[in-house]
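Q&A FORM
Asked by: J.P.
Topic: structure of XK-related protein

PROVIDED:
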Amino acid sequence: MARRFGRLQLALAAAGTAAAALDVVADGWVAAGYVRAGRPGLAALLLALLALSSLATQACSWLWLRSDPPAVRPDLPQWLLALLHLLQLGVGWKVCWEKAEEEEEQSRMAFLSHDISMLRLFETFLENTPQLTLLLYVILETEKAELSQGLGICTAFLCVTWSLLDYHRSLRSFLQDKQQLSWRSSILYFLWNLFLICPRVLVVALFALLWPYGVAVHFLLLWLAMFFWVRLQGTDFMETPGPEQLYRAVVAVILYFSWFNVAPGRTLYRSIIYHSFILVDSTLLAVSWLCCCSAFEEHSYLVLLLCAALPCYLLGLALRVTYYKWLHPNLHVQPEGSYDVVDTSARSEEPEFRLLSVPDLVNRRMQCLVQAQFPFSQPVGQRCLNGAADL
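REPLIED BY: S.T.
REPLY: Here is the structure written out as tokens.
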């Protein structure tokens, strides 16, 4: 079995872990600053976002753990397992660094690494994107930026875009016929997500500057629209209907800020619909702020910043097109005898997943996501159950 982590993958994983740890430190620093400044409400809101994101992520992780095959579940008492479960970052670090010479152990590590990538994506979007909006709102309101706030914004943006890159790399590593991302492809993937998310956060923060409670209504309405859109696409990610609603709710939060595909089939038209909708919504938020901003001279720098948001978003779209047209890994043929196989017109209708030394250890959750992300046909009625079911 090919190793899950080469030098590039290890460097990315280590950098992502460091960014996540730095982000936690920055959150505490910012919250303490709000308390010292006599604004405990902002500190409470910041920490509440951290707590809610952690709660939702831990709920998903616990549900997945309960449905995992016995081979990846530690033989421990339930209370101790629940306590150790809170240390999922430590598990992720072990997955990155453990040598695991035995193929069976490598299979277990690969299984866990895919789940950790998904959980980090969930936690990052539930925590960092709302915190980004809050931090930017406070800076715009007070017209000054503390060092802790600047650090918090930088680490939050880094964590969000890094989690998207790590998630995409994890999807590709699950398939045998997908090449891994090169340095150039990884950098471009990172940048176009950054350029698409930055304008979105900016216009939401500006809207909140005039209507602090209005942005909550806007988020709720858009979240409901995204939730029903995900539901209409017939997601079947979790193994029971109740947890499936939790998954859809989390995805709806991600869609408020960034594109996230959840259904199989061609993604081009869904992507066009989504980006057009977000572009129109962001434009309406920006126009609302411009129309209601009474003192343009006092906020001239904000007007210039807002004018730069549209080119930034369009640049992000252009970089995305560039990535898929010229730098997508499938465009480059690998040397003969390498582990991956280049996509061809004669490919089979079923996705070829990476072979594991333990056949039962197939991460069905990642299998569902891969079949949604990449254009493979799936037999009617097949469910992506986790565990020891047949492929």
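FOLLOW-UP: The mean pLDDT is 76.
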